[in-house]
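hey m, so remember when u said the tokens were messed up on ur end? i reran from scratch. heres the input so u can diff it against urs
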Amino acid sequence: YVADDYPMRLPLELGSAQATFDCSARYMVNTNISREVWSKSTDTQGGGFVRLGEDYRVFAVSMFHQLHCISALHTAITMQTSQHSDLGGHVQHCLNYLRQFILCSADDTVEPVVTLSRLQSQGCAAPFTRTCRNWERLYDFSAANYLEFHQYK
């Protein structure tokens, strides 16, 4: 692929998967477990990048870029104030990037309303299930793509 000549999506069918959205202590803001879980959410063999075409051109996969940005925001929230200046440009990029992709996907799924009293008493919304694109396929594709490139190299 050269210049702007490349596919908009990866060459795979994601299919769908049921996901239940609920509170998870694993994704709390500032615990040892949460730091590990946030780190692992973006831990792919290719670093969220894939190589496509005969020349194995490098591309970022949007889902991994988005997860990377959420992880960067988590880091910025949990770090000491004196360290924030090191992340300024990166955090600004990530906030804008996530804003753009939220608007781009324009997810019109309706969700149960969460009352402030529930958040204060239970710390989260009631669980609900929805049908999502199967993100596990992206992790699998990324791992296979990484191995393919390193066998080629």
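this time it looks ok to me. The two ends are 18 Å apart (CA to CA). if urs says something different then somethings off w ur setup not the seq
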